[in-house]
Amino acid sequence: MGEVSHDVLTAGGPGSDASSWPGWRGRGREWELIARLLRAARASRGGVLLVEGPPGVGKSRMLDVAACTALRRGFRTARGFADVLTQMMPLAPLLSALGEPGRSPPPGMDTGLPGATDQRLSLLADLHEPLETMVAHGPVLVTLDDLHWADPMTLLALRSLTRDFSSSPLVWMLARTSGGGDVARVDRLFQVLEGDGATRVALTALDERAVTEVVTDVLGAVPEPDVLALAEITDATPFPLVDLLTKIKSEGGFRIADGRARMVSTLPPAQEVTRRRLEELSAPTRRLLQVAAVLGRSLPVKDLAEMLGEATGELLPMLEEATAAGIIDCTGRELAFRHDLLWEAVTATLPPAVGRALHQEAGEMLLRRGGSAVPAAAHLMRSAGRGDARALLGLDRAAREVLRSSPHTAAYLARRALDLTEPTDPGWLGRAATAVDALTTTGRLPEAAGLARSALARAPSAQEPRLRCALAYIMLLSGRPADALAEAENVLAQEDIPDDLGGIAEWTVFWALISLNDLRKGRPRAEAVLADRDRHSDAAVVGALLLRARCAMVDGRVADSFEHLHEALRIAGGGAVEAIQRPYARLLLSLNHRCVYQFEAADMAIQTAQEEIETLGVSVLAAQPALFRARVRLATGRFDDAEAEAQAAMAIADDMGTQGFIRLGLSILAYVAVRRGDVDAATQHIRRYRCQPGTAGMLFGSAWEGWVEAVVAEAQGDLGRAVEILEPTYTDAEGQRWTLLTAPLSAACMTRLALATGNRPYAQSIVDTADHLERTNPSYPVLATVAAHARGLLHGDPADLAFAAVNHPQTWARASAAEDLGALLITTPDAPRARERAIEGLDQALDGYLRIGALRDAARVRARLRAMGVRRRHWAQPQRQAFGWDSLSETERAVAELIARGLTNRQAAARMFLSPHTVSTHLRRIFAKLDIASRAELARICAEKKQWRPGGDAEGPGT
After folding, report:
1. Residue 229 DSSP SS3
2. Among 595, 647, 606, which residue's Cα sits nearest to residue 628?
3. DSSP string of 504-515?
4. Burial of 796 (C-beta count, 10 Å sphere; 0-12/13-18/19+)
5. How far is CA 517 from CA 146, 703, 708, 916, in A?
6. Model confidence over 122-162: pLDDT tens digits?
7. 176, containing H or E segment
8. How many CA atoms lie within 13 A of 91 on its CB side?
9. Each residue of 488-547: pLDDT tens digit?
């Protein structure tokens, strides 16, 4: 195929002298989009072009010409495609484009918990290396065709990779046939990418003018109406039209005179033309093409030779004939049909029974070779009948093989195998267990639970414990810890259960009790396990220690809680459920550090948990590190960073199928919105939060989400509703201690709320609890500051409020205490220097709120000052701008400088203890604030800032 020149693309479309294919007439807009993307990539900007349309409309040709043009302009290119017979193979289109990733994923670990070890995280990480290597040397174009046949892992990877490389000189062109293959999943991908800024092009049939130009190009003459009518036969789609015209021309079907073309005779439909073309081939060549069609749109030559029982050299005459007829192309070791329409036309010549028999032979051939069973699976599913033992064994192998690398595919294979299994087949339960595991990993929890219960109904007693453990795990992930507890206790009530299942069941019991915050039941159970450790598995001992750590926090004994968590981590080194235990314990450890404002230690624990989650393949916790970091950023008053972390976590949760954790992300966004003064946005986040699956505090039993709902209700002016939401906390001593420790700002806020609604006993209970925590934990001074703030509000004590306004480690809390001090002094005019001290306190509060972007709180303080006759001009405060360099947060500037120095997203993430997803989120925000679209532009801006600032430290002017 020829190339379209740089000048042609720049002009907006290929002319007949530059394009090798007349069918691209009338595509000026599409060429301009391609040209724009390639120009942007040469300027170090990335982009995504989504191409869709019916068969034959020119999608593949568009990708081909774009790739040739990109090569001519100095791009590196990677070209891949999906195939109906490779859609069971994880990442097949991307691997065909990029080659094997540089690092093999870790071997799967059998923990007995469905979905506990999942290689998807590792596979996604491995794909970054070849892309990073390519973009490091200049602009890159990646084209992926026929994505309607893509496997689920490829679609997941594209969601992640397009985000992570959005700021690199990498252009993606992704094409699919409308209505073909897995429509829902590909629709979802295109919708997500379009929402991220991708351009979407729907190629349609050629208009009348374009048809005339195409026919003129092919025939070298102006077409008469009878010639133009051929467009109706092919639905005016370019490939079949050009193909049809070329074929008829070669057969002498046109009469050309005086520069005009007419039909010689009536033409049969295009399908008939294709059939006649096949009939003109020799019988051996037709047979070769039919067998080739069974093997796929593209296929290795050696597979075709083996299926035909011929030496490769014996196939040369038939291959030459098929190539000369324009049906196949031979490139390297692969054969490929020139177009889907030709492939489908050849496939249609096979009687169904013959097609099934050939698929069976192909599947058995691939299985005989050993190695992966996945390539055989697509053939087996097309040939197997109910009860076909050999085919079912092949599908079983394939499902187990991809279970950890592509659980969506594993679920499909296992489900298909179940459909083909007789009810009395002893293999039914094993297939059901595989399907339950795969469905759980992909987040299809109701379906997994239903199948698990069906399996339990027919399982012998020996297999029941394992299925119940799986069901208990599903219930935990579904936000139904009470049901999980019941299933796990059912397992433990049975006699002679295997040790590994007993440990899993005991661990699940403790996990459920922590999620339920049911310490009355959990405390004695944990003490019993720890008193007789030799009779219990390490998994049970770790679970008991984690529950004991929770009890210590609820009792207000922070140091003891740390001790129990560290002991749990020492034990959770090699047990059966290590893959869940270690990162889970690390995250709880980070929570403790955050509660006492040890933020660096909290970040370290989160980073270690993230590394363990990725190494061990615990996809169920993949979103949690970013969520925990978001809470740490909130505690330090860095709202922009908290928002970025929450958004990154929600994207990961959506990608990994753990939608239940989107709840926590939405609650964080709602809290940030309240602090910024956008109550409408906060209300929308809470509305979405309530529609999400799961329950509040899923997995970690946190009081945070209820606390945020109360904050939003208060911001809406509904104080009664806020008190109603928090009433369980006001009236329960354990819940109060837990809330005041895990959300330290809640002590003053709940005291203030109770007083505002005339409920002094509630306020007194909060102050009593805060005092208790201070006395019990003298080693953690932040608790003394928290207690002083609450006491100052309850008793109207300016000394306590002044102490909190000076000593609290968090900017927002200091500002809040200063505001409360100013408000108190306004009401005590007889106090020495009351007015002057009140204004000082309110000014301190205003300054603190503005520094962290708490605009709603700042507005309230301004109103207090105006009521005193004091006005503070908005510009006089150090309020961050909305755009430009000065609008960047501290973290965004750090990310900008690392990226400007040439680091990849993953390298920057490792330096900053972030996830690559979070770095990508920060980069998108940075680019929007600076109104740029490339790393090169970012590097230029950073260099200018560094040159302007004396010593590289002083702030430069805003951009």
Report:
1. coil
2. 606
3. HHHHHHHHHHHH
4. middle
5. 50, 10, 18, 33
6. 888 888 888 988 888 889 999 999 999 999 999 999 998 99
7. strand 170-177
8. 24
9. 999 999 888 888 888 889 988 998 998 888 889 999 999 999 999 988 888 889 999 999
